[in-house]
Specification:
The protein is an alpha/beta fold. The protein has two domains: about 80 residues, Orthogonal Bundle (Arc Repressor Mutant, subunit A); about 210 residues, D-Maltodextrin-Binding Protein, domain 2. It has eleven helices and eleven strands. The strands form two sheets. Strands 3, 4, 5, 6, 7, 8, 9, 10 and 11 form a nine-stranded mixed beta sheet that branches. A two-stranded antiparallel sheet has the order 1-2. The longest helix is centred in the N-terminal third of the chain and has 26 residues. The chain is globular, with a radius of gyration of 23 Å. The N and C termini lie far apart (about 75 Å). The mean pLDDT is about 85.
Length: about 300
């Protein structure tokens, strides 16, 4: 008796439906019509003899078995992509497609110096970028939507390969007319928790900032309202409080045209490590190591340009 083997296309349809929870959006994501996607999933259900998805007019709900199968489907599709990656890795380095997720507190400050360098040095590389918070980026990596992730450590990343690129110190940013006139370095005890503005949950920089301050009470005292670093800067510029910024953002000009000063924190934890991560045992490891070197050099050139 032969067992029916799902096709990769059917598994792609199933995974897309799980991700988007809507037949129309899942069809758009897989570049087929809604009827094609729906028929593909029904055929899969019919041939394996189980219901994977409960359909109503308003809701798409996966059955318990459907949840298990879609999780397996993620792994099968990732393995299939890595088969193609093995062949690609045997040729010239850094050619073809690479999908990189980048967290929002890195993307606007490092990528502008990186992308022209990549275009000049690696014209055969097609780099697709996706800006996501750390948790979302790791989900993308786990499910095969991203090949590598550029993020900041420490952060729980799971079973991945990591290459640390450089250290990114943290600074306290405050209005230039602050009557307390902070010294050249700011002790964590000087930070008023009631005036501290941090990013909302989901951004790893929030945890890095709290670790730099090393004061447990700030977790409840801080006004966690910012959705981005640029939003926090505008709040500080309007006298609403103080915040912590990475040196990378300051070098990238985030304080231009503001009345904000920034001073380093006197703390051993007042920094984050910028790193590139990828799935363990990926056949493209040599490509990611090369990319890490390019990222490291781009950051070094940016620092030199600012210093000059």
């Amino acid at each position: 008796m032969s067992t029916y083997m799902p096709t990769l296309k059917q598994l792609q349809y199933l995974v897309a439906l799980k991700e988007h929870e809507h037949f129309g959006r899942a069809a758009d994501a897989t570049f087929v019509t809604q009827s094609t996607l729906s028929a593909g999933i029904r055929e899969l259900e019919s041939l394996i003899g189980v219901t994977l998805v409960e359909r109503t007019r308003r809701i798409v709900r996966f059955t318990a078995l459907g949840e298990k199968i879609v999780e397996k489907a993620h792994r099968v599709l990732r393995e299939a992509e890595e088969l193609a990656a093995i062949a690609q890795a045997s040729g010239s380095p850094l050619v073809g497609e690479m999908r990189m997720s980048v967290i929002p507190t890195i993307a606007p400050f490092l990528l502008p110096s990186l992308l022209p360098r990549l275009r000049a040095e690696r014209p055969a590389l097609q780099l697709y970028l996706r800006e996501e918070t750390s948790h979302a980026a790791l989900d993308s990596l786990r499910h095969g939507h991203a090949d590598c992730v550029l993020l900041a450590l420490p952060f729980p990343c799971g079973d991945v390969e990591t290459e640390v690129l450089f250290d990114d110190p943290l600074y306290v940013a405050f209005p230039k007319d602050d009557p307390r006139d902070p010294p050249a370095q700011i002790d964590p005890e000087m930070i008023d928790g009631n005036r501290l503005l941090l990013l909302e949950d989901g951004h790893c920089l929030k945890e890095h900032a709290l670790a730099a301050c090393n004061r447990a009470e700030l977790r409840t005292e801080a006004r966690i309202t910012g959705t981005s670093l640029h939003t926090l800067v505008q709040m500080v510029d309007n006298g609403l409080g103080v915040t912590l910024l990475p040196e990378m953002a300051i070098r990238g000009g985030i304080l231009a045209n503001t009345q904000i000063a920034a001073r380093p924190i006197r703390s051993l934890s007042a920094h984050r490590d910028i790193a590139l991560i990828w799935r363990r045992n990926s056949p493209r490891e040599s490509d990611f190591r090369l990319m890490a070197g390019i990222l490291r050099n781009a950051a070094a050139m940016q620092r030199e340009a600012v210093a000059a």
